[in-house]
């Protein structure tokens, strides 16, 4: 835990909760003011050499193109992801339109179809290469819609949802079927302002006024048949926030999932493991190629609680 020097020159611990609030505050300031004052171009790594190795499409939150999603792309590069990277801004084009970005479901489904078309176009030109979707916050909800929009017979390698602003009992079966290695859901019970109070007041991507799956995890919906329940068990991997993540710069708030170091040390190894490539970032190269958890049982299954 970081320290600050007190008035008597002693070292004082900064509580993790205060660090979490400070990280979210700085992130929100960057999201709001950098695009408005200086502009922010979507991050892209689309060289021929990278396109030959795979494709990852990064979907921002309802803020649109910002420093947050640029840091996700940079973290993947830092971690050694060799494939192409593209931040796709699915929003209406301005952070000031965030209510529209959050609640315009039909518009968001149209954008999801465009994302699916981009994936199909890539797979047609580069068959057999790994394809991933990473969605943060509102982009996590749109990532689910994009998976659902893929044509029958089309699948991607995996999807990673970071604090997704979608209801926890949303039926994921159609989305899960469109992945080979499954969907990872990273969530934090400390995400109170955005994905508990915020979505309770304003709603989720799918129009529910509830705590989002990015705060409480996904729950298996009622009425699933045996095959669908098995799909949840094999293809939904849930990772609650762990205090261990603070070592990688993520304090448990809403914007910490986009921390560049966290992305390099926690997310990139998931993707590299699916290519059987050794991760290059982070101080501990011996750790498993999956998200870590302070428990001894690994990521929590669907409906499991956070830490």
Summarize this structure as a short list of keywords or feature phrases.
alpha/beta; globular; 7-stranded mixed β-sheet; Rossmann fold; 307 residues; 40% helix
What does this structure look like?
The structure is a single chain. The protein is an alpha/beta fold and 307 residues long. The protein contains eleven helices and nine strands. It is 40% helix and 12% strand. A seven-stranded mixed beta sheet has the order 3-5-4-6-7-8-9, with helices on both faces. Strands 1-2 form a two-stranded antiparallel sheet. β1 and β2 form a beta hairpin. The chain is globular and about 45 Å long. The protein starts with a strand and ends in a 34-residue tail after the last helix.
Furnish the topology, listing elements before pairings.
Elements (H helix, E strand, L loop, with lengths): L2 E3 L5 E3 L2 H22 L6 E2 L2 H4 L3 E5 L7 H13 L4 E4 L10 H6 L1 H21 L5 E6 L1 H12 L8 E5 L10 H5 L5 E5 L4 H11 L10 H4 L9 H10 E5 L19 H14 L34
Parallel strand pairs: 4-5, 4-6, 6-7, 7-8, 8-9
Antiparallel strand pairs: 1-2, 3-5
The strand line-up of the biggest sheet is 3-5-4-6-7-8-9
Q: Low-confidence stretches at least 5 residues in length (pLDDT < 50)?
A: 3-12, 282-301, 303-307
- How many β-strand stretches? 9
The run of helices and strands is EEHEHEHEHHEHEHEHHHEH
Radius of gyration computed on alpha carbons: 18 Å
At the fourth CATH level, what is the homologous superfamily?
Alpha/Beta hydrolase fold, catalytic domain
Q: What is the helix content?
A: 25-40%
In the CATH hierarchy, the third-tier topology is known as Rossmann fold
Number of spatially distinct domains: 1
Number of helices: 11
Tell me, briefly, the overall form.
globular
Q: Specify the structural class.
A: alpha/beta
The end-to-end span amounts to 18 Å
Class, according to the CATH hierarchy? Alpha Beta
**Biggest sheet architecture:** 7 strands, mixed
Give the averaged pLDDT, no decimals.
84
């Amino acid at each position: 835990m970081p320290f600050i020097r007190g008035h008597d020159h002693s070292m004082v611990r900064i509580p993790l909760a205060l660090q979490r609030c400070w990280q979210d505050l700085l992130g929100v300031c960057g999201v709001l003011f950098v695009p408005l004052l200086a502009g922010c171009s979507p991050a892209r790594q689309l060289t021929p050499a990278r396109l030959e190795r795979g494709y990852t499409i990064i979907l921002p939150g309802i803020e649109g193109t910002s420093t947050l999603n640029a840091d996700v792309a940079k973290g993947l590069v830092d971690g050694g992801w060799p494939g192409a990277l593209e931040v796709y801004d699915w929003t209406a084009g301005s952070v000031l339109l965030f209510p529209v970005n959050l609640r315009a479901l039909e518009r968001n489904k149209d954008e999801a179809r465009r994302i699916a078309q981009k994936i199909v176009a890539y797979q047609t030109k580069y068959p057999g290469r790994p394809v991933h979707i990473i969605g943060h916050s509102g982009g996590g909800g749109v990532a689910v819609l994009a998976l659902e929009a893929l044509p029958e017979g089309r699948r991607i390698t995996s999807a990673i949802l970071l604090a997704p602003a979608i209801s926890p009992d949303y039926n994921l079966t159609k989305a899960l079927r469109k992945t080979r290695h499954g969907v990872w859901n990273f969530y934090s019970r400390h995400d109170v302002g955005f994905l508990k109070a915020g979505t309770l007041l304003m709603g989720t991507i799918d129009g529910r006024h509830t705590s989002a799956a990015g705060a409480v995890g996904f729950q298996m919906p009622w009425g699933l048949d045996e095959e669908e329940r098995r799909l949840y068990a094999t293809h939904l991997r849930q990772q609650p926030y762990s205090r261990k993540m603070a070592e990688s710069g993520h304090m448990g708030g809403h914007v910490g999932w986009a921390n560049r170091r966290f992305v390099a040390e926690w997310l990139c190894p998931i993707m590299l493991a699916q290519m059987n490539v050794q991760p290059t970032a982070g101080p501990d190269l011996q750790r498993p190629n999956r998200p870590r958890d302070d428990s001894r049982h690994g990521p929590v299954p669907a409906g499991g609680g956070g830490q």
